[in-house]
Fold each of these.
Amino acid sequence: MAAVRTADTRPQIDEALVRRLVDTQFPQWAGLALRPFSPAGSDHVIYRLGEELAVRLPRHQGAVGQAGKELQWLPRLAPHLPLAIPVPVGVGGPGFGYPWPWGVSRWLDGEVASVDTLGDSTEAAVELAHFLAALQRFAPDHTPAGHTTEALAGHPLSDRDRETRTAIAKAHGVFDTTAMTELWNAALNAPGWDRSPVWFHGDFHTGNLLTSDGCLSAVIDFGGLGTGDPACDLTIAFTLMSANSRAAFHEALGVDDATWLRGRGWALATGLNAYTSYAAVSPRVAAQTTRQITQALVG
């Protein structure tokens, strides 16, 4: 029997649609030029709006709700952080066949960080540690009355167990299956976060860091923002850093062994997920995730 092909239910997003959404819901920006930004992420289609704004529209159901979350929380977090972050200025609603909320934020200039430019920089590694420390110090109970963080609660690493073991099996022959399984088991068995919940970025990897003149300048894409165990943000140590800069990051952040081990587990799980999903069609993703997985195994 022939396989049944599932229809792609993702909305079709083009410049004409975005123009109509902006012009009708934010008429104050109707005269601004609109142009697509590439490469965008897997969660959003991004358009530049004039020189100072960006429009981000979710591609799929999993990204819905991020615009409202960022509008609610990023202005409160920004004053406490040592690097620039996006400043949301509005959330639009469904229209013209597009089904979900979408966001407008201030555009942040910069180049995406790369291993070539920052991988060996202990200065950048310490800056990133200070950023995460500042984010974690802004405790959830610092938020104003009427704002709740319950919907931001993070998911435990164990939620990724089945898909990660499946990915380990798929990657057999490419990476060391035994080493991956041992690391994954160790990360799952490490003591959990037993302190008060803290803020985490949730998608803290090289692609969400911007540089200016070779120095870190901004952190973007807070769609995964949440509270709980911050181990997921340690993924940056394995996507960007070398052994020396990673050691400086580890020391500056003061991470305990259990949290570091869970962070290696997050790096392995997310790297494998991206590798098995996209490596066959994207040499760039293949190279980035291969590095992430191998560095997570090194520790």
Note: The CA atoms of residues 171 and 276 lie 7 Å apart.
Amino acid sequence: MPELPEVEVVRAGLEPALAGARIDAVTVSDVRALTRHAGDAADFEARASGRRVEGVVRRGKFLWMPLEPRAGGNATPEGEAIVGHLGMSGQMLLRESGIPPLRHERVRLDIRHPDHGELAVVFVDQRTFGSLAIDRLHPTPDGAAGGRGSGMALVPGQVAHIARDPLDPAFDEDGFRYAVRRSRSAIKRVLLDQTVVSGIGNIYADEALWASRLHPERLGRDLPSRSLGRLLDEVRAVLHRALAEGGTSFDAQYVNVNGQAGYFAHSLNAYGRTGEPCPRCGTPIVRVSFTNRSSHYCPKCQRRT
């Protein structure tokens, strides 16, 4: 599943083409892409068509595109946004206007930008776990910007329960520390809890824990303050490195808006390296089952003590 670096790469790629563009037409080819939308395909198409996109915003693994307010009595004070989640294999691709339907295409937005002209934004999803929806925007409880890419203190209702990510200037570090120290769960489970800290998935949790020399099943409440501080530093460091390298691609399911893969997979120290020597001590990396996922760690460097 795309994590913070991959979704941020997509957001940054969409922003120049979408911010300020007007949606000329919307075509829903597969209603399974609208599982989070309250209406049907016709409702989604009608509510998005003809409106100007005011930006592209991200919090954790969610994207949203605020829309200019609608005229008439149905308008809300805070407005609406198209909310997107890439799921396991979702892609948001920028293409020339009028191209034939792409393989696994689910939704297409035909847009017109004042500088870039006519373009198509195509939502492609092989495994159909991703989704698009139109949702109302709500004020953020802390009064800070809703996410990366906008200064507006607004967030879609579907995203309001998602915690801020560690790269967000408004991230509540004290609140994160408190949540970890009172948790009876394994530290990796806490890192994957999007209501505690968002944007971190299996890949970057394993990498940050390896860099911090912490066993993934170490209980959060047992972590000393210094270890917790180091873990948070390593989480931020690995996210920044992955961003610089365009994210992590193991197959063609994650690509940026131009269809290009990220190359951070070549820099991984633990995730996906089962049986290979630990870059730090040479001990073979092990893989264990973890809540329908897998954890990768060094049994020597990351002892469960």
Note: Helices lie at 4-18, 41-48, 173-181, 187-192, 202-212, 225-244.
Amino acid sequence: MAENFAVYPNKIPYSYYLNPDVIFLAKDLLGKVLYTQINGEITAGIIVETEAYFGIQDKASHAYGGRRTNRTETMYSSGGVSYVYLCYGIHHLFNIVSSVEGEPHAVLIRAIEPLIGNEIIESRRKMPVSKAAISSGPGSAAKALGIDASFNKKDLNGEEIWLQDHGIKYSEEEIAAVPRVGIAYAQEHALLPWRFFVKGNKYVSKPNKI
């Protein structure tokens, strides 16, 4: 674990998250490493699947049409904070808020490949890391890293949750761009190819064939 910090000491800076192009960010986040530190225990995973949500213009976004509620208010923050919400009353879903204050863009992290603290991840998920289901899908990815409602609006440059660039890059040919999952209510916006994943990575959630 110490070796990772020695080689990759720098957290991704706030300026990265201020990018107004959430589609670019959702793609660029593939390969970045998401860390959590809970009670002194560090776990981390490589991001292998994301979805972009394009603010007030996106019918699939919680902030569509400028909607502001207690839940969505986090999305209107300046980029570089986490947006965590409960889905179906069961799963906590982790999103990265991006762009400038008042522009509610977000990237949903849908899957990670376990990298650091695998024993802790296995304990949280009650299965071995060899099983894709351990961190496949947004609810499982969040649970694997110990992310719950208490992580909402956390500083992504802080001590509890952060991202690092380990130099893992994927070419255009290695990335699938397909419609997002479970958003039929978004009408024509449900067809937009704003879900990105690493082709052939076993931790990517289904459907994962293109």
Note: Residues 9 and 164 are 8 Å apart (CA to CA).
